[in-house]
Amino acid sequence: MQLARLSVYLIFFVGFSTQAQWVGKPLPVWHTGQLDIHHINTGQGNATLMVLPDGTTLLADAGAINSHDWRTNKPRNIPVKPGNDRQAGEWIARYVRNALRFQGNPILDYAIITHFHDDHMGTPAHVTKRGKGGYVLAGITEVGEYIPIRKILDRGWPDYSYPRPFDNDSMVINYRRFLNWQVQHKGLIAERFASGLKNQITFVKQPDLHRKYPVDIRNLMVNGAMWTGDGDKTRLLFPDLKTLQATEYPNENMCSIAFQLRYGKFTYFSGGDIQGVLQFGSPAWHDVETPMASVLGPVDVQLLDHHGYADSENGALLASLQPRVFVIPAWASSHPAPDVLGRLFSEEIYSDKRDVFATNLLPEAKTAIHDFLPRLKSQSGHVIIRVEPGGKSYRVIVLDDNDETYTVKAIYGPYKSKS
Ligand SMILES: [Zn+2]
Q: Do you know which SUPFAM superfamilies this protein is assigned to (predicted)?
């Protein structure tokens, strides 16, 4: 008993002395047994690089709005981080190359596209840069030009027809061109993300290490098919399309891929752009967070749903997940909404401590959430979760995103994993 207590003190003492040494210097490279989750900030949408304890790599999303909104056909004028001289996809690739410098030739073993929006996959609108396969380089297609991708999981492969075909969607058309060319010429494997499974994403570098470093990734949801918590079973949250008018079909955000990663006692949740706060007059099934909450329990770290937009992070989800650490992948003036921050910090929803980190608050967002700003641990930067071998504890590290030195700005923790 005493020995156990002594070792806890020791972990935290060593933890604090390590932290002081890191600030102002480049992030130390990953080593075997660690789990790194990098929330890369380009100011252009989501991009999360994971390095699993055996060295298997995964990139979830590669947003690139390219300062142009295909939805409204208006420029958004959001600066690219670290600079406008390259597109977001190339910055992501360069970040990945640096983070994976322990490998000779960096490879992404997996990529996931949570759903088909520009801030998660990249838009070809107004982009002239093209790859060898003739497709436009933007977001994931640009990352793939610089870093080989072995397997890509999305919600549409192979027919891209749910809830309706993407025949007029230039983004999905360009992406499918990329997939087809990469499958033919580079050996890329494309698969549909399959809800309920926990063996679609596994260690591929050193599978034997799974016994020593147990990481499981559970596929929770895609296209409204949600894991029930029982074996690999799923149930459909959305009505049969036959009972709906085309205008009532599920929207892109609610079709997002959600997954949960566990490493020993450590748990991380990522839900893409799922929503849980009903717009006036919309049917109850538009809230996908509440059913999701019913099959989940407490987590250590949550990547905020839908960038913390007003329709996300409802009370049921927060009461179930009770995250110790929140990461907000912010890129627009509406990220995060004041109401959402009110819920995040609400001790009526849960009483435990929590720390909130944002990747890229815009000046307009800072004005809107002014009263909450002192409570945020970060307002800009790459946010890295570094989980120690075995998963018992983790730190949050904020890196400078103004250049490519990857300098540690601040470090928080060590936090003890929950369960
Ligand atoms: Zn989004």
A: Metallo-hydrolase/oxidoreductase
CA of 252 to the centre of ligand 1 (A): 10
Tell me the domain boundaries of the chain: 2-416
Q: What pLDDT, in 10s, does the model give residues 197-217?
A: 999 999 999 999 999 999 999
Centre of ligand 1 to C-alpha 308, Å, is 10
- Cα(387) to ligand 1 centroid in Å equals 26
8 Å CB contact between 258 and 272: yes
Asked if residues 179 and 188 have their Cβ atoms less than 8 Å apart, the reply is yes
For residue 330, the CA-to-ligand 1 centroid distance in Å is 9
- Dist. CA 63 → ligand 1 center (Å): 8
Q: Please check whether residue 335 is in contact with residue 364, taking contact to mean a CB–CB distance below 8 angstroms.
A: no
Cα–Cα distance, 40 to 217 (Å, whole number): 20
- Domain boundaries 2-416, corresponding CATH code: 3.60.15.10
Under 8 Å between Cβ of 76 and 68: yes
247-299 pLDDT tens trace? 999 999 999 999 999 999 999 999 999 999 998 889 999 999 999 999 999 99
Q: What's the full length of the chain, in residues?
A: 419
The conformational region for residue 334 under phi > 0 = left, psi -120 to 50 = alpha, else beta, is alpha
Tell me, in angstroms, the distance from the centre of ligand 1 to residue 3's CA. 47
Q: What's the 67 CA to ligand 1 centre distance in angstroms?
A: 14
Q: CB burial class (10 A; 0-12, 13-18, 19+) of residue 360?
A: buried
